[in-house]
Design brief:
alpha/beta, D-Maltodextrin-Binding Protein, domain 2, 13 strands, 33% helix, globular
Length: 334
């Protein structure tokens, strides 16, 4: 009897090695499906994190063939989704795309059904440590590097100044990310705006973090409340101690939320499989990229509001896990 069992196990291992079959739980998707995922520029954080997710999901769902495509990012991804050139769009412009506002004004509305929030993108105002600027109101009459022209960061700068009633009262210069850091360090500007993702600094911000003594200026969520209400793609967030050397206590900031979007072309079964598989293997994501390690189920619906729609397949999983609030709308198939 023992010889038969041993022989069976040997044959089982041999079949596994030859065929590449995994003896994990049965995959949810039984027939091959190709998913084209619009991410960001080559080498960007977005592209690397999306690749990590695609790799992990495909490992446990081998019939999901996920191809991560480099793109121009937020705005382009929404347009590629509308053109049916991609199946998943990484974008922080879900509300404006779905309602033909902002950069989409004058265009057709885009069907945007959310799968999950990937991470927050925090807009931060930085000054050198010995600067007399202590709060946003102190920027009046000062020189501010407000992000590259046309970039999302530049738009966020405008929203912050508008929220504080400082439009046209601050001398804003639109510089590139690295140029902004140099300008602040050299005293060419009094403050600069930059960004972090889940508290991890952008490459240019990391340069400042490593080479200068600086402070962050808090952005009061109460003062910004009207701005957040007008554009649900933006909202309050907090930089916590531990990722930036200048942060010793919680600092309130403005954030946009990078969300992965699909539309009604994606079946409920595929959407459910992607979300379920990702959240049940978050421990593996951290081995690919440190930011992927911040993905947690409790943050899945950050940035969703009554003005955004969730894919019904994703909603099924969140309902099973008991985290789907009544305030989040679910897309309805026609």
């Amino acid at each position: 009897m023992m010889r038969k069992v041993t022989l069976f196990l040997y044959l089982l291992c041999a079949v596994s090695l030859v065929s590449g079959v995994s003896f994990a739980a049965d995959p949810l998707i039984k027939t091959p499906v190709t998913i084209v995922w619009g991410s960001g520029s080559l080498g960007s954080t977005t592209q690397m994190v999306a690749t990590a997710i695609g790799t992990v999901v495909s490992k446990y769902e081998p019939n999901l063939k996920i191809s991560v495509q480099t793109t121009g990012g937020n705005t382009e991804n929404a347009r590629l989704l509308r053109a049916k050139k991609i199946d998943v769009a990484h974008s922080s412009e879900g509300y404006t795309a779905a309602n033909a506002l902002g950069p989409f004004k004058g265009e057709d509305k885009i069907e945007m059904w959310g799968l999950f929030a990937l991470y927050s993108n925090e807009t931060v105002i930085c000054v050198l440590k010995d600067s007399p600027i202590k709060k946003v109101e102190d920027l009046e009459g000062k020189r501010l590097a407000g992000g590259p022209p046309g970039a999302g960061l530049a738009n966020n700068t405008k929203d912050i100044l508008r929220g504080y009633g400082l439009t046209d009262k601050v001398r804003v210069t639109n510089l590139g990310y690295n140029e902004s850091v140099d300008a602040l360090k050299d005293g060419v500007v009094d403050a600069m705006v930059n960004y972090a993702s889940e508290g991890f600094p952008s490459p240019s911000f990391a340069q400042l973090d490593q080479t200068a003594e600086y402070r962050l200026i808090p952005i009061d969520p109460e003062i910004m409340k009207k701005v957040y209400e007008e554009n649900p793609d933006k909202g309050p967030s907090v930089i916590k101690p531990g990722t930036l050397k200048a942060v010793k206590e919680d600092v309130p900031v403005l954030a946009t939320f990078s969300i992965e979007w699909a539309d009604s072309r994606m079946s409920d079964e595929v959407a459910y499989a992607i979300v379920k598989t990702m959240y049940e293997h978050t421990d593996e994501l951290s081995t690919y990229h440190k930011l992927a390690g911040t993905i947690k189920l409790e943050n899945a619906l950050r940035g969703f509001s009554t003005n955004k729609y969730l894919h019904p397949g994703a909603a099924k999983y969140y309902k099973e896990r008991g985290i789907l609030p009544d305030t989040v709308k679910v897309g309805i198939r026609k």
